[in-house]
Amino acid sequence: MIRSCLHVFGVCIVAFCLVTEGGSVSASCKTIGCGGHDPKSTCFCAPSCFSFDDCCDDYAEVCPEQTPTVKLGDVNMLITTDLHSWIEGRPHDAHLNASLAHVVSVLDHLRSIAYAQSRDVFFFDNGDINDGTGLSATAPDHVAFLSPVLQTVRYDALNIGNHELYQRNGHGIVEGPACPVVGLKESGYIASWEGRYLTSNVVWSSSHEPVGNRYTMIEGKFGTKLLVFGFLYNMHDHCDAVEVLDVEDVLASQWFKEAVQAHAQVCDGVVVLAHMDYRDELVDKIWTALRTGMGSSKPIQVVAGHSHRRGFRHIKAIRFYNVWPEVYEAGCKLDTVGFLSYSREGNRLRFELANISGNINQLAGAVNRSVSNFSTAAGARTAQAIQTARDKAGSDRVLGCAAQRYRLMTPPGKNSLWSFYMQEVLPETLLDSAKSQIAIVGTGAMTYDIFPGPVTIDDAYTASPYGNFWLKLEGIKGESLIKLMMELNHPTPWTQVVPSYVNSSAPIASSTYDLVFCDFDLDPIVERLQGMLGKHLEPKLYKPLLNTSSVLSAWFQQRPCSDESILL
């Protein structure tokens, strides 16, 4: 579920948006009107929801979006977060057509405008660079193709995210790189940022040394000095290579207190890159610890992420509107390029923000440019790096063809991606017997629609990006599987279009099955079954040459395109 902000009389109202990538369309903006939604609340026509792909397909034509106003302040920040390798522009979503190269061009133009006024502009990324498209999934460590692209982008500081820290090889169960962050270290990516890749609470498990730097001081062209930290939420399911320290413990540590004390008088403000939901209580704890050490007047801005939302809030309950907006989150997957600025007005700060949709026209308009004179030399270099990465990943290679569009967030049925995956793809490519085997998969495993016509490597891995391997439990009674599905999906909010878990077929209570599932779902499935059966269960590796992504690719490879389809 995605949330976004509507501004009514200066109040941030959170709108619940049910559809994430690849929206489910049950109505048209022509019939429900701009600003409305269909009766089932699966399709929205509100500008605040559009950048999250939960609006109707015809939103861009019926309800064109206005370019947001970018108001420069004394201190200005351009922000990306949760890119998840969506750095190329979306071929199946004409509105979100901007690439990371276009963001680089925005930075150039924004700095040109700001520098003419002697104002500084800083550029930040807030983590989760990988896991989302073929640029990530086709690399064994999920970062090898991405990192050279990001090294062409002039970020002032970067944070780490949870996706850089997931175990990829099941603690040695399957072959391959163990953890993306190891690849980032071994490739020299982390070192290339010269102390500006921040990991305030992530350390190497072998040495307990920080993965990156705990903090950094950056200085703009006109002398603005910002003290920057990079925190990750209290992540416990990380890979063996690292240890994620609880935020509370770091805030109480000696190094943190000394860093705050040493910089309190020399920095002009503090920025916290916090890879956590902007509403997370950890944000408040970080802000309070910094406020205690910095005094009452030092600007402290938290840049949030992880929840894939647009949103902001004030940490203190009573504030004047548009003053001291201490926490801001700028969407995900390049659907949003965030901008915020602040300026001193007496003893207060005036804050401005702009959510710029990942659209070339929107980005160009935000910096007073037309598309024809928008691209810069630095942007062109990043564009070339993206193309090089795509070539290495084989992104454009056609696997086969899809006869129709399969939608991620559509209830089970003919048009549902999940019905297609569970009832057609898995029985053909993974299961040996649909009668004696049942697959259960958590619906976080896929993230985007499959579109009609040619399906490329990138299309397949964008729909199913994580590449989780398969496990098997033998001899599970149907009655236990029925109960398991009920527990996994309870409670299901009435607003939830797709259940949290789906199965390939309905188990018969009196029958016995082999249960197939992916490693990401191991804990919720095995723990519940062990509780039901009263015994320890040890899953076995199942078909190690296949994973949650490759089965989809394999299915389409058996559906070659006709000449007419290739011409679409």
UniProtKB/TrEMBL annotation:
Cellular component per GO, a single term: cytosol
Annotated coiled-coil segments of the chain: none
InterPro entries on file: 5'-Nucleotdase_C_sf, 5_nucleotidase/apyrase, Metallo-depent_PP-like, Nucleosidase_C, Somatomedin_B-like_dom_sf, Somatomedin_B_dom
Taxonomy, superkingdom: Eukaryota
Keywords in alphabetical order: Disulfide bond, Signal
Signal peptide boundaries: 1-22
Biological process according to GO: nucleotide catabolic process
Sample GO molecular function, one term: hydrolase activity
Keyword S-adenosyl-L-methionine attributed: no
Domain SMB: 25-67
Protein name: SMB domain-containing protein
